[in-house]
Design brief:
Length: 451
């Protein structure tokens, strides 16, 4: 980018003749590639005609920092670049939506010449990762964090170690996590390492999605979006895009796991409630010892759930199913009441929870985003109120040790990390995606190392 001219998004503002002289010198000194901009490519290629070494290639590139044009416009651009004398065509557009990448994939897979297709920005990340799947000549990775040369560029280390870039082929199945924001998710780390450990030809990536329906309508092939995890804010809105919903997920009204079946239809599940409830139950067993067979340690407990979104619904439904007396607290009372009525529980506002302690030894589950990175100092419940709880669970896992959990531990409660819910719901998702049991020990090792 230092030698890319400012009129093409680079940092070079010097004399154009000197710049091209330097590029010609690089060729004479044995460089394998020169990247020249379409606007000056014809003249540059004419100037080296007859003096090109055999192993030397000219990449002719065009950058669009505003949007991604129609497939027809991109095809016309490819033809113009070819006509300029390019050995390799390079196109970089900008993603306003993740579905913009589909137009670049379409051009790449049908290209008769070597082609580099990049869609810049965080919504375009998949274009960089899936270059080998769609026949791209190469992709770009930054040498280190903070040294990126274009918006949305991953590091070379992430390409190789996190996304297993060298293992991606045209027939590789694509999985991912749908969310907004989504870059913080540890799921690609877990799933890509797990796929690699058993030799599955699959990759799992971050999907920054604005419109779920548009996403699934655009990416509808069997091997693309073969399965998706679904996180905030799409757990409820994604329901309407599904062909079939697991009965438990339908009752909760939120999904977090989507599988594309061989006939292309979408089946949805909710694995959040299994992950969270089983973790809470194990925490209570640790506290109270064994319970009669067939009985949940949550049975009869006063179970306070903070938040009435997708995760809140999962916890409230799961708690009620296990025989707990559920209390739902939410910022807006109406939403709390709607969920509480559904599970036969009680409703209140978040503000009321601080002074709510009809009994000792209650169980608390936070499903709000209060305390999530970067707001490390925030907590959804004042410390003095935590002494009435025997166990506190926080669905947040970035950071792992939230202020709520630290203060709960100091107040004498057993704590259950959000990472435990993530790990356990991940076991279920892996099983739904692959039909195989999850490599549980590997999941735990990775979370321990990276959470």
């Amino acid at each position: 980018m230092l030698f890319r001219p400012s009129w093409e998004g680079g940092q070079y503002e010097g004399d154009e003749t000197k710049r091209q002289d330097a590029l010609r010198l690089a060729m004479q000194l044995g460089a394998n590639y020169i990247d020249i901009e379409l606007e000056v490519a014809h003249d540059f290629n004419s100037s080296i005609s007859g003096s090109k070494p055999d192993n030397f290639k000219v990449i002719v590139s065009s950058h669009n920092f505003h949007n991604t044009p129609s497939a027809e416009a991109i095809a016309n651009l490819v033809a113009r670049i070819q006509a300029s004398g390019a050995d390799i065509v390079s196109i970089a557009t900008t993603a306003l939506d993740i579905t913009d990448c589909a137009r670049i994939f379409q051009i790449m897979v049908h290209s008769q010449v070597p082609i580099i297709g990049i869609v810049m920005g965080e919504r375009g990340l998949i274009s960089r990762l899936l270059s080998p799947k769609f026949g791209g000549y190469l992709t770009y990775g930054a040498l280190e964090q903070g040294a990126i040369s274009a918006p949305g560029q991953p590091t070379a280390k992430d390409l190789l170690d996190l996304y297993n870039f060298r293992l991606i082929r045209p027939d590789t199945k694509v999985y991912g996590i749908i969310g907004k924001p989504v870059g913080h998710s540890k799921s690609p780390l877990l799933f890509n390492a797990s796929f690699k450990s058993v030799g599955l030809n699959a990759v799992y990536m971050h999907f920054l999605v604005d419109d779920v329906e548009k996403f699934f309508n655009t990416y509808s092939s069997i091997d693309f979006a073969s399965g998706c995890s679904c996180t905030i804010p799409h757990k409820e809105v994604a329901l309407k895009c599904m062909n079939e919903i697991d009965p438990i997920a339908k009752k909760i009204g939120a999904i977090n796991n989507i599988v594309r079946r061989p006939d292309g239809t979408l089946m949805a599940y909710n694995t959040d409630y299994i992950g969270a409830i089983s973790a809470i139950e194990d925490g209570l067993r640790e506290l109270n010892g064994a319970v009669p067979a067939g009985t949940s340690p949550l049975s009869g407990k006063l179970f306070v759930v903070l938040g009435a979104g997708g995760a809140g619904k999962s916890l409230a439904y799961g708690g009620a199913q296990k025989g707990a007396r559920v209390v739902v607290a939410n910022r807006t009372f109406e939403r709390a009441k709607e969920l509480a009525d559904k599970v036969g529980g009680q409703a209140m506002t978040l503000a009321e929870v601080e002074h709510f302690h009809p009994e000792e030894g209650m169980v608390l589950a936070n499903t709000t985003s209060v305390g999530m990175k970067p707001n490390f100092d925030a907590t959804p419940l004042a410390k003095h109120a935590l002494k009435h709880y025997c166990l506190v669970f926080d669905a947040i896992y970035t950071p792992k040790d939230t202020r709520l959990l630290r203060e709960a531990r100091e107040s004498g409660a057993v704590i259950v990390y959000g990472t435990e819910m993530l790990i356990r719901q991940g076991f279920e998702q892996y099983k739904n995606f692959t039909g195989l049991p999850a490599p549980e020990e590997l999941f735990r090792q990775l979370m321990e190392k990276h959470a």
